[in-house]
Each structure stands twice: as structure tokens, then as C-alpha cells.
Specification:
Blueprint: H1 2-27, H2 44-50, E1 60-62, H3 67-72, E2 84-88, E3 96-97, E4 100-101, E5 104-111, E6 126-135, H4 140-155, E7 160-164, E8 168-176, E9 181-190, E10 195-203, H5 205-224
Antiparallel strand pairs: 1-2, 2-5, 3-4, 5-6, 6-10, 7-8, 8-9, 9-10
């Protein structure tokens, strides 16, 4: 009897270990999705050093759209302050992505604070939060189907798919990666017949970076305001 009990105990332990290993494998977080191996949050100089084959425009300050609006076209623009620096690649000659020539490559950076808690709005104090490719397709349906297959081969089955818009229709597939990262494939078609395809990359920590930048603007305003000044009233 003791031998049987011992064997049963050993088998139970092995079964528990195998079950735990399978569960751990199934719940393992996927790898983060990066844009051309650039870590999210990298500043402009560090980003440009990794993307050494590209030349980028001077930064242009712009409104900061939140992640879901930038990547998924949800139409809800959360941030309305100039806390984003946007640049584009100047020349894309001979550059192909997934076999397609590009008509655009854009990067968005959030401005970050210095030691004083203010926004210098220089290239050092920036953090990469968004990147996108633009393709002008001859056949939108063919290109979308092809890229869905290629992105699925790279990142697994899509995490979601939806269609939105009226005068401009957006056909959107997206894949979620580890550490709050995301890539989307967006087919854009106008009622006029023109079309575009976008592959967009971002991470959800971008919203926190934008909010911190906006908080810094509020702080700057408070520092500049003379609370005793009643002139002109």
C-alpha cells in the first residue's frame, strides 16, 4: 500500500508541475511591439541614432492626440495642448516596408520636463510615443489583405478589428503587445475614391507622458502668475 501511495503522490506532483508549466506558458505576456527596435520613451537624439538611415525634418509642435485616437481613430481627442513634437522622414527613396514603397514615415514625441519641472521643448527632453508608415495603394483591398497576413505572421492573430467613419471610412486591425504596446493597420478610403494605408505603432504609456507635460504647463503658468496683480480690473 505504501508503494502505491508513494507512486500516486509522485504522479500527482508531476501532474501539478505539468499543469503549472502549461498555464504559465499560456499566460505569458507577449513581447513588446517596437518601431524598428527603438525603445518607447527614447528622446530624439537616441531615436535618430537607431534610425541612422533616415533624415528627419525639424520638430513641429502640435496638439497631442491620445493613443486610441492616434492608432485606432476613435475620434476622442483627449489632449488639446501643444505638448507633442512631430517629425517626418525627408527622403524615403528605396525604402520599403513589407515589400511596399512608403509615401510617409512620421514620428511623434511627447515633451518631457527638466530638473525644474518645466518643459524646455528641446530635442533632448522628448520621448518617442508614436510612429507610422504611410502607403498609397493601387488596390486597397489587396494591400490590406496582404498586410493583415504579414502582421499576423509577425504578431499573431489580431486582437481586434473594426470599421468606423462616414465620409472617410477606416478599416482597422490591431495587435496588442506586452508592456502596453500596440500596432494597427488602418485602411483609409475617401468618398472621392482616394485611399491610404497606415501602419501605426504606439504604447499606452504615451497618455501618461502627455498628461505630465500638460501638468508642467499648468505649473509654469502658476509660476508666472502674480496672484497680487489686480491691474486693469
Amino acid at each position: 500500500m505504501k508503494v502505491k501511495k508513494t507512486v500516486c503522490l509522485i504522479l500527482s506532483v508531476i501532474l501539478c508541475l505539468l499543469t503549472s508549466a502549461v498555464c504559465a506558458e499560456q499566460t505569458q505576456e507577449p513581447a513588446p511591439i517596437l518601431f524598428r527596435n527603438v525603445p518607447w520613451g527614447s528622446n530624439m537624439p537616441d531615436t535618430y541614432a537607431i534610425l541612422e538611415g533616415f533624415t528627419f525634418s525639424s520638430p513641429n509642435q502640435d496638439y497631442a492626440g491620445d493613443v486610441d485616437d492616434n492608432v485606432l481613430e476613435d475620434g476622442e481627442i483627449r489632449f488639446k495642448d501643444y505638448v507633442s513634437a512631430k517629425v517626418y522622414a525627408r527622403s524615403l527613396k528605396d525604402v520599403k516596408v513589407a515589400g511596399y514603397e512608403l509615401s510617409g514615415l512620421n514620428l511623434h514625441f511627447a515633451y518631457t520636463t527638466d530638473e525644474s519641472g518645466l518643459l524646455p521643448k528641446d530635442e533632448e527632453h522628448t520621448a518617442l510615443v508614436f510612429a507610422s508608415y504611410t502607403i498609397n495603394p493601387k488596390d486597397l483591398e489587396f494591400v490590406m489583405n496582404d498586410l493583415v497576413g504579414k502582421l499576423t505572421k509577425t504578431y499573431g492573430e489580431p486582437s481586434g478589428h473594426r470599421t468606423t467613419g462616414r465620409s472617410i471610412t477606416y478599416d482597422i486591425y490591431y495587435w496588442l503587445g506586452g508592456e502596453g504596446t500596440i500596432v494597427s493597420l488602418v485602411g483609409e478610403s475617401y468618398s472621392s475614391g482616394s485611399t491610404n494605408v497606415y501602419i501605426r505603432y504606439s504604447f499606452y504609456g504615451a497618455d501618461d507622458l502627455y498628461q505630465k507635460a500638460i501638468d508642467a504647463l499648468v505649473y509654469e503658468e502658476m509660476l508666472k502668475t502674480d496672484t497680487e496683480d489686480t491691474s486693469g480690473l
